[in-house]
Specification:
Layout (H helix, E strand, L loop, with lengths): L4 H13 L5 E6 L6 E6 L2 E6 L4 H12 L3 E3 L5 H11 L17 H10 L8 E2 H7 L6 H9 L12 E2 L12 H10 L5
Parallel strand pairs: 1-4, 5-6
Antiparallel strand pairs: 1-2, 2-3
Helix pairs in contact: 5-6
């Protein structure tokens, strides 16, 4: 027996509204292709360029708890802000973020990353210095590669010391597209 689509959607929305979920997820269509996104009661916890949720669901469940369900309505604000960003109507995100479980250095780096303005770039070395460890540019590169919330935490704005596009978890083509969208590359 299958559940009618409208009943399933109402169940998911009700579970999310009632606080019965540890996290909600959906696949959001974007200019860069489908994005897997997950939110908890604390905020946006994950965005990946891999729309296949199995691996990501395990990661989300590890930090939030096992009650993870696809509930598109719970991601309405995330979807709206991403749509506005890709349409050129948004230059900063107002979403709360759930970064629990990350090491202190990673949190410092991501905090400094969030300060890199729209349409500008910084280098791994500069970001390492701002995070309190100027010799840790390789470690910053690892943090950028493992960024749990790309686009919103704009790791695409971090470039090599000579301005070259290096390393991006979503691929260099996506990094270039994001920088062009922001006017940081001609």
């Amino acid at each position: 027996m299958s559940v009618p689509t409208d009943l399933d959607e109402r169940f998911r929305a009700s579970a999310a509204r009632s606080g019965l979920l540890a996290a909600s997820y959906d696949v959001i269509e974007s200019e860069l292709g489908p994005l897997f996104a997950a939110v908890t009661d604390r905020g946006l916890a994950r965005i990946t360029f891999d729309p296949e949720p199995e691996r990501e669901l395990e990661r989300v469940a590890r930090i939030a708890g096992p009650r993870v369900l696809r509930a598109p309505r719970a991601l309405a604000a995330t979807r709206r802000e991403l749509d506005d960003y890709f349409a050129g109507r948004r230059t900063a995100f107002d979403l709360e973020l759930d970064l629990r479980g990350l090491p202190d250095f990673t949190l410092r780096v991501l905090g400094e990353l969030a300060r890199v303005p729209y349409g500008q770039t910084s280098t791994y070395r500069e970001l390492a210095g701002r995070a309190g460890n100027p010799r840790a540019s390789r470690a910053v590169g690892t943090v950028m590669n493992r960024n749990p919330i790309p686009i919103v935490l704009p790791c695409h704005r971090i470039v090599g010391s000579n301005g070259s596009l290096v390393g991006y978890g979503g691929g260099l083509e996506r990094k270039e597209r994001l920088l062009r969208l922001e006017g940081a590359m001609l």
